[in-house]
Hints:
Layout: H1 21-24, H2 28-48, H3 54-62, E1 68-72, E2 87-92, H4 95-103, E3 108-110, E4 123-129, H5 138-150, E5 152-163, E6 177-178, H6 212-215, E7 243-251, H7 260-267, E8 270-273, E9 278-286, H8 292-295, E10 303-311, E11 314-321
Parallel strand pairs: 1-2, 1-4, 2-3, 4-5
Antiparallel strand pairs: 5-11, 6-7, 7-9, 8-9, 10-11
Helix pairs in contact: 2-4
GO molecular function: S-adenosylmethionine-dependent methyltransferase activity; tRNA (5-carboxymethyluridine(34)-5-O)-methyltransferase activity; tRNA binding
Pfam families: Methyltransf_11
InterPro entries: AlkB_tRNA_MeTrf/Diox, Methyltransf_11, SAM-dependent_MTases_sf
Amino acid sequence: MKQINTESDEPYITDNSISSISVKSTPEIEKKFVHHVYDAIAPHFSSTRFAKWPKVADFLSSLPSGSLILDAGCGNGKYLGFNQDCFFIGCDISPSLIKICLDRGNEVLVADAVNLPYRTGFGDAAISIAVLHHLSTENRRRKAIEELVRVVKKGGLVLITVWAVEQEDRSLLNKWTPLADKYVEEWQGPGSPRATRVPSSLSLESIPESEESSLGGENVKVSNESEILGDLKEEKNVKNQQEYFVPWHLPYHRAEVGGASAHALATGLATKDDVKGAVVYNRYYHVFSEGELESLTNGISNARVVDQFFDKSNWCIILEKTS
């Protein structure tokens, strides 16, 4: 088992000229409702993440033997080592998920998607699977794509997938908690987002496997004492809504007694659902509309779109680095 040495000059660098400090600074909503949540639910989340998406598997299988593949936002590492003829290095913002990867013998490190710690042109290919929708501003999403292009060689391919607004099951959009206010660019303040309605179901059929497999489909109860949900308003037309909280139910028997879950409950970042016997965490998502992912690449002069497609309620794109 090896862990990447982040103190060495090779192959990792930090280029302060790549982006402004504001883009690299993590907004509070991501810290609380992405980073902290995944650290808290990591073992349970990992137990539900094992099936490989066919399109991702096809992409990885198509790469030449000996390719070095960078997985940015690798989660529990389910794609690391998928193609045994290639080499994989993964990174994720969650130390808890990275520990799971390390325990499985993968080459991984903790890193931010908007500031990848690899030198320019390091990898032969890169993937970002279900990551960009957790970034809360357009600039940060664009920066993450620029980073993926930067770290691959000329001619290298980049596969990106994100959750879509255009869900195959449209009823799902009424089962998540839409956020009433779109966050201002580079939002980092202490203000509380406000929700417009309570989610009525936990169903996450927009991804191949979900926590429903272990928890069933009963209705979700969300406490009005949770500060981040704010005051509940009347249901509104969510046709153009793209900002959501999507709940994750961590069963009581999987929650650490006196650990992260206890702290989250005490601070209002999680609630209890005694009916389901679980601690409820909310994960922040910006779901993508048709053409939005491609539009983020318009200003990247050294990359071109070679394929884009819709798969299992996800928008997907493949880029090639041209210079």
